[in-house]
Amino acid sequence: MLLSIGMMVRNEEKYLERCLRSLQPILESLDSELIIVDTGSTDGTIEIARRFTDRVYCYEWTHDFGAMRNIVLSYAKGDWFFFLDADEIIDDYEDIIAFFTTDRHQRANAACFLLKNVMSQDDEHNYMYCYLTRFFRIVESFRFEGAIHEQPVYRGPVAHIKASAVHYGYINDDPELMEYKYRRNVAILKRS
Predict the structure, then answer these.
(1) I want to staple 66 with a disulfide (CB 3.0 to 4.6 A). Which of 132, 144, 155, 184 is the partner?
(2) What digits encode the pLDDT tens for the residues 8-51?
(3) How many Cα neighbours within 13 Å face the side chain of 167?
(4) Does the 3-191 domain belong in CATH 1.10.1040.10?
(5) Around Cβ 167, how many Cβ atoms within 10 Å?
(6) What is the pTM of this model?
């Protein structure tokens, strides 16, 4: 298998279906799989996930994002691993497919793409842009570290994929979302 797409989720029904639909062209074009690890959803997240893959697993939340991502990674059968969050919707996927259907992936050990972070509820086209390394060749040393804002441990070279996703996770003018993430992150940091 060429590509494993892995996600960890919890109470993600707001964006999850859009996220998973955006992955369909990739899953249909490449020898790939979709792995979803749920960490305690109480909404319709698991039901939505099961409509898109039979590779849905449930684990108790450990208050450690890196450890949970490593659990997702442990199920991967692919040569490469692509991770994303349930509030990230691929809006330009063609070069992801091209990267893996040409020899470009053979000349790299990782690859980045563009993440467009939505900044306002009132203007979904008000983005803050960043390039993130989200595609990794699976080797023995590849893993995630860090309880919060976990980082992948990988080796280069890093390729650039001309593809993008829209991220709804840090909308600055959504006080409920910002308060939730603040409280969650502070609790994790106090445990570390």
Answers:
(1) 144
(2) 999 999 999 999 999 999 999 999 999 999 999 999 999 999 99
(3) 17
(4) no
(5) 21
(6) 0.91
